[in-house]
Amino acid sequence: MAAVAVVTLLLLLAVASVARGGVTSTYRRRLQALPDMPLDADVFRPPAGFNAPEQGGFRRYSYGRKYRSGFIYHATLTGLEHATKYHYAVGSGTTARAFSFTTPPKPGPDVPYKFGLIGDLGQTFHSNDTLTHYEASGADAVLFIGDLSYADNHPDHDNNRWDTWARFVERSVAYQPWIWTTGNHELDFAPELGETMPFKPFTNRYPTPFKASGSTRPLWYSVRMASAHVIVLASYAAYGKYTPQWTWLQGELKRVDRKVTPWLLVCVHSPWYNSNGYHYMEGESMRVEFERWLVDAKADVVLAGHVHSYERTHRVSNVAYDIANGMATPVFNRSAPVYINIGDGGNIEGLADNFRWPQPEYSAFREASFGHATLQIMNRTHAYYEWHRNSDGVKVVADHAWFTNRYWMPTDTN
Ligand SMILES: *[C@@H]1O[C@H](CO)[C@@H](O)[C@H](O)[C@H]1NC(C)=O
Ligand SMILES: *[C@@H]1O[C@H](CO)[C@@H](O)[C@H](O)[C@H]1NC(C)=O
Ligand SMILES: *[C@@H]1O[C@H](CO)[C@@H](O)[C@H](O)[C@H]1NC(C)=O
Ligand SMILES: [Fe+2]
Question: What residues does the Purple acid phosphatase C-terminal domain cover (predicted)?
């Protein structure tokens, strides 16, 4: 037996040493084009029952065996003026509840606007601190970077936790725009509960204005607010070449007009640059697919969440790399965006405090704490950024930076 093993090993070594020089096969397929298979081909035949991709349709929102949602109403308001305060009421008679919101100002290059940046919020006591501190920051709108309720961390994805989350954030969400990015906790994909339609609770509850930007699904879209063009991407929907998201983003970047909206902000849940051991490199395939586009487009900031800590990068790119040239190290690049990971809202899963060492050169500041950030756009050239740490009941600015616009004044060396 031992002798046989040794012989096998020697043979393998021999094959390996022959192979080291590399071989280019001379085999070629016949270059003959073939027509499409006919529509009645066996491989196109629908399966019995209800399991073909084009089948399906609307159903009332229920989840698992136990949960049935209340009636969820959506109203689309059209013909609104910019920069105008609107009052509205929900319900009637003695049950009516009154709210108000202010629409964003008309897009223009020097229109100031202040965004709150929140991710991975959940509904813990920390989450409550984060929301309280955000309210104290006095921003105009929230870019929410995904992972809302964490209902799926409860038995059977207890969707009552979606209800409670909505009630929790109502004190801000009912009064100003929250721009939704989807995270993995919006998937709610649970075949063991009979729930096989990803994003079912999310899409039933949080409509997005995707049609207005020519998108075909609620998960990726754009909005223009004041002097910002905000692009929302979906980490958990296909983004490879020729997919609907890929095709949409390619067209969308051409529609960005930096003379009207100088600030190009991109939201995506799973980070492309992050030096925490948690979720390490999960965003890599999407970075490979889209980073060059964003650097070419001179995006200002890419926001991500997912990793439950805070991190801000320098302006780096890794677009020179291809799989053969060995140029695998991110380099400083004045055209590149700053990457901000803001997955520190304070959800039930706790902190990601597992940083990798040494800290990579691209990482400007990182801290495993909960908090939120604000991005205050002053005009076409300047924006002031702050990260607010939750610190035992008060908020503390623990990181800040001035960003200059990549299109109008690409001077900052952040
Ligand atoms: C959540 O925060 C609000 C605002 O600070 C506060 O009124 C409320 O008591 C807090 N709730 C809990 C459960 O901590
Ligand atoms: C910096 O980004 C630009 C724009 O995408 C790109 O053409 C250039 O190659 C990048 N520079 C380096 C050193 O990677
Ligand atoms: C833009 O805002 C910055 C920061 O407030 C200020 O220093 C700069 O002068 C402003 N630029 C213009 C053209 O007003
Ligand atoms: Fe996540």
Answer: 336-396
